[in-house]
Amino acid sequence: MAKNDHKLELTWYNKSKSLFYDPDKKEYLWVDKKDPRVSEPRILLERECYGDKDSENILIKGDNLLALKALLPDYGGKVKLIYIDPPFNTGAGFEHYDDGLEHSIWLTMMRDRLQLLKQFLRKDGKIFVHVDWHEMARLKLVLDEVFGLSNYMNTITMTTNDPSGFKATANKLFTTSNFILVYSKSDKGKNLNKLYVEKGYDKQYSKYLHNRDKIIQVGDGRI
Predict the structure, then answer these.
(1) Backbone angles phi, psi at 28, to 5 degrees
(2) Does the pTM exceed 0.70?
(3) 2-197 is classed CATH 3.10.620
(4) Number of Cβ atoms within 10 Å of the Cβ of 9
(5) Rounded to an integer, what distance in angstroms lies between the CA atom of residue 19 and that of residue 191?
(6) Torsion of CA 4, 181, 90, 171, to 10 degrees
(7) Are strands 177-184 and 121-131 parallel, antiparallel or unpaired?
(8) Contact at 8 Å (CB) between 65 and 38?
(9) 3-class DSSP string for 13-72
(10) What is the pLDDT of residues 131-189, one digit of tens each?
(11) β-pairing, 217-218 with 221-222?
(12) For residue 122, what pLDDT is reported?
């Protein structure tokens, strides 16, 4: 952590630079942020169309950083909600991306994309970022830097494993959850629309304790 202008921020190797993926060399290269390979917008080329031709849905194949730059002129400031599920940086191998990047590479990739995604959001927009424990703490600081700590809304914990079976008998701690970090673009995005779900009458509300000093029957159980 470094203290600059009275603010705490996360620092890492080559933070002032951007990353360019060279498909020929199949490696990431540190480049200046003004390098045209990462700074100039790209044009999307339509290859094929499936289903409803009038649909606005788009599936883009390619570097998502370049894809975002291509979409920004048309969608900047118009998106109300963004959900992303980036690589967790677990060290596992996948066919289309490396999930075991060195921390500085992973953080730079996330920072550059989050800065772009912020430009897509409306003033009342929100972003939901799915991550696990591997980079959660560091990513939270990057999101604070990009969106502002005051725009942090909450962290949603998702249960992914039950503490049962063989895991429960192991002699070590195990992971049971993933996380979704939630940020708004501004104060206008912090209010949530309430959604009421109709529910039938709960018969248990008709049961009550007559005497706290006795064990009495309530419903189908004993108290």
Answers:
(1) -90, 140
(2) yes
(3) no
(4) 14
(5) 35
(6) 110
(7) antiparallel
(8) yes
(9) CCCCCEEEEECCCCEEEEECCCCHHHHCCCCCCCCCCCCCCCCCCCCCCCCHHHHHHHHH
(10) 998 889 999 999 999 999 999 999 999 988 877 777 667 777 778 899 999 999 999 88
(11) antiparallel
(12) 96
Q: How would you write 111-160 as a 3-class SS string?
A: HHHHHHHHHHEEEEEEEEEEECCCCHHHHHHHHHHHHCHHHEEEEEEEEC
Euclidean distance between CA atoms 131 and 57, whole angstroms: 25
Question: With the C-alpha atoms ordered 98, 100, 102, 106, is the resulting torsion angle positive or negative?
Answer: positive
Residue 69, CB half-sphere, CA atoms under 13 Å: how many?
A: 13
Element (H, E) at 73: helix 64-75
Residue 119 token pair:
């430009």
CB 126 within 8 A of CB 183: yes
Q: Is 221 left (phi over 0), alpha (psi -120 to 50) or beta?
A: beta
SS3 184: strand
Closest CA to 153 of 180, 114, 176: 180
**Distance between CA atoms of 136 and 221, rounded to whole angstroms?**
42
